[in-house]
Amino acid sequence: MALQQHVEIPLGGQTVDPELPQRRLALVAEAAEGLLAAEDPARMVDELFGLIQSELRLDVFFNYRLEAGRLVLEAHGGLTPEQAAAGAELDLGQAVCGCAARDRQRFHVTGVQQSEDPLVAFVRDVGLDAYACTPLLHGDRLIGTLGFGRKWADRFTDDELSFLHTLCHFVALAKYRLMVEQELRAGIEQRDKLLGELNHRVRNALQLAVSVVRLEVTSAEDRAFSDALLRAADRIEVIASAHRPLYASDDPSTVAVADLLTAAGGGSIDGPLTVKDGAGAKLPIEQGVALALLVHTAFAEGGVPDQPASVQIAEQPGGTGVTLTGVRPETDALSGRLARALLRQLNGVVEPGADGLTIRISNATKG
Fold first, then answer.
1. Domain GAF: where (predicted)?
2. Most buried residue, 99, 145, 206, 269, by most Cβ within 10 Å?
3. Dihedrals phi, psi of 326, to nearest 5 degrees
């Protein structure tokens, strides 16, 4: 009989090696360590084959991965280029590996050279006389198959099969980890592309809004109305400037306070805004625009003429918030309706001091 499932027949005439169990256990440990730290799915199986080839006197291995309902040869050893090309792809149910994948069962093929079964034609043509194939599974998910063959004997022993199946379990686990990591990277890349496109479109929309408002200024006859439109255009421009740090954050739920202040420090502020931050403090991202507008209101609309604008960022005790010190706007710059609304949104308070105002914001998070 050519195909046997879970067959375990010892080879006769062999002397039992008393050090064999300990040596096999050491090999399993070394193989598991290498597999679980591997970065390349094909290379890790090739290295595994090199590790155990001498111990089990193996001649060949085939590693197939499942791809679009077919088995694709991902790694192999002991094959000529022509043999690898002949077995490059298999349908489920085709040859031994295809049957192992279709049935999700381990196959131990014995006496291959004496068999006329068409399922063993490929491994017979390769010159194998014994072949053990294991489906690589993670739960209900079929990842592929891994098989090992030898030419010098017509079967594997029960201990050898158990050893190979154990290694295949670690291979399946390692391959599943790499697949999940690849899927996560692809998801992150897709997210970054979508965020980049969203960022581009939002910024374009905000810039268009700024342009429309400024066009209205040129046609407005009432000076007070024109000034109000200009302030509105400035604030929209601040939102556009602050938009990039919101999407550049490594953590999609937070944004760096220093990045926001630097972005908001442009626009209509008279002179550069110096931002000093040694804590890497962050805010919840939903508070980012409010902070940018608050800083703009403080410096652009109430800044002290001819005095450099500088803000020092510090963490509050216990990481419960951040404190901005050295804010030097006019005394009543943050007493207006907009500033009060922004401070409420930020859970912030303003305290006057000799060196300027201090703004304390609650619910910030540490970077």
1. 40-185
2. 145
3. 85, 15
